[in-house]
Amino acid sequence: MGEVLEFEEYVRTRQDALLRSARRLVPDPVDAQDLLQTALARTYGRWETIEDKRLADAYLRRVMINTRTEWWRARKLEEVPTEQLPESPMDDATEQHADRALLMDVLKVLAPKQRSVVVLRHWEQMSTEETAAALGMSAGTVKSTLHRALARLREELVARDLDARALEREERERCAA
Fold it and tell me: Which GO terms describe its biological process?
């Protein structure tokens, strides 16, 4: 009975540190909790064989590593061998560069304050409050400025799309003539 209480006390005092160790071993927090629970269950069965309880953390970490390795080996591979390799399209960075160039060009139509808000909120992924603090304005001002800036960007993109379609139509007509 004393061993059970000793193990319970150990788990109670070391649980957070052990969970941090488990989270370093597996990327998903839920899997980390499962890993720790499995390791604790396995360790509980052998608790009395650990003579120096000061080494219990090391023992438990080794159990977690071994358990993770077992899980990794037991996983089902989703790759299925076939006789022919599937055709996979190559990613073309040219389109990405064109999109980025278009976006940089379209941003020029915005006022400097609007451009700053858009860049901080969407590229730097700052929160509304962080953007407000960085620019020295209220959160409400950030929201309204962002709303107006995005509306202006949409208008500009639609206008450019219409211009591009008109140019394509003219080019087709010229080639057909």
Answer: DNA-templated transcription initiation; regulation of DNA-templated transcription; response to stress
Task: Specify the fold of 94-176.
Answer: Arc Repressor Mutant, subunit A (1.10.10)
Each residue of 6-23: pLDDT tens digit? 889 999 999 999 998 898
Residues of the chain with CATH 1.10.1740: 2-73
Distance CA 167, CA 53 (A): 79
Angle, in degrees to the nearest 10, between helices 56-74 and 29-44: 120
CATH 1.10.10.10 in the chain is located at 94-176
Q: Which of 161, 158, 157, 135 lies closest to 146 in space, CA to CA?
A: 135
Q: Which two tokens stand for residue 25?
A: 């071993």
As a whole number of angstroms, the distance between CA 8 and CA 2 comes to 10
Neighbours of 26 (CB within 10 A): 19
Residue 176, token pair as written in the block:
């057909």
Supply the CATH classification number for the domain 2-73.
Answer: 1.10.1740
Residues 108 and 153: their CA atoms lie apart, in Å, by 10
The answer to whether the beta carbons of residues 25 and 32 sit under 8 Å apart is yes
Best CA proximity match to 50, nearest among 59, 37, 41: 59
